[in-house]
Amino acid sequence: MEMPTGKILIVDDDKLIMNLLSGMLDEDYDVICADNSLEGLRLARQEQIDLVLLDINMPIFDGQKLCQTLKGDPETKDIPIIFITALVSAEDETKGLEAGAADYIAKPINKSVVLARVKIQIEAKQQREYLEKLSTTDPLTGVPNRRCFDETLEREWRRCQRSEKPLSLLVLDIDCFKLYNDCYGHLAGDSCLIKVAQLLTGALSRGGDLLARIGGEEFVALLPDTPFESLDVVADRFRTTIEEAAIPHERSPISEVVTISVGGSTLIPNQKVEPVELHRRADEQLYVAKEKGRNHYSLGVG
What we know:
Layout: E1 7-11, H1 15-25, E2 30-34, H2 37-46, E3 51-55, H3 63-71, E4 81-85, H4 90-99, E5 103-106, H5 111-135, H6 146-163, E6 167-174, H7 177-184, H8 186-203, E7 210-215, E8 218-224, H9 228-245, E9 260-267, H10 275-291, E10 297-301
Parallel strand pairs: 1-2, 1-3, 3-4, 4-5, 9-10
Antiparallel strand pairs: 6-8, 6-9, 7-8
Helix pairs in contact: 2-3, 7-8, 8-9
């Protein structure tokens, strides 16, 4: 059976064990190593890790403490952890499982046991991620949905708050979309939404940006680390991308083609303001853009 792919982090202060495990796994997986818990914590937060193999007995900052730290961090809590240990008593196993470990591998290490247990954990994680993706994807357009946007906004808000970096949001609305549906029918309306979603996604310039459909003909673009000075470039790119696609809209009082209105805002997150405030301000600017006659953008800064 084909092995699942994935990235594995091995954390062990014993170089012999680390090299032994790496040699068992590096043919089928992307393996990175750390020889202490602090370095392991850094790599777990920095890399896209699918599984951690963790020595329980390490000096100063031991495996159980690292496991508890990873499980207490929203950014790493879903990474499965397998303890590598010579401690095999029921009490030790219970402590490890209570700390958040998914499984144990006992020393001396057996290759077939390692491969089997690693495969089980990575397949389970990938299955969870697949189901999570289904639950956070808009079924019509294939872009992220409202739930994904809300969760990403919360996460990026915390990250930008820690780094004191700006977080920008654009709210985009297809102009006179009800008239489009009335003219061409709902099947054509669905096709239009799919096309617009594709165009807007293609207009994003960075991997960390998020384009989501949050309802009806409304989309949002979440732009971490984007200062207000750069927001007008992105907003105008979205607007012109849709207009230049020249999707016919003969009932529109604005243009012969489908257009969008865009509102945007930028904040540097802090503890005095909730993430919803960024969305509220962008919505206010969307209203201003519509008041201008639609097929416009309007931006505000906090």
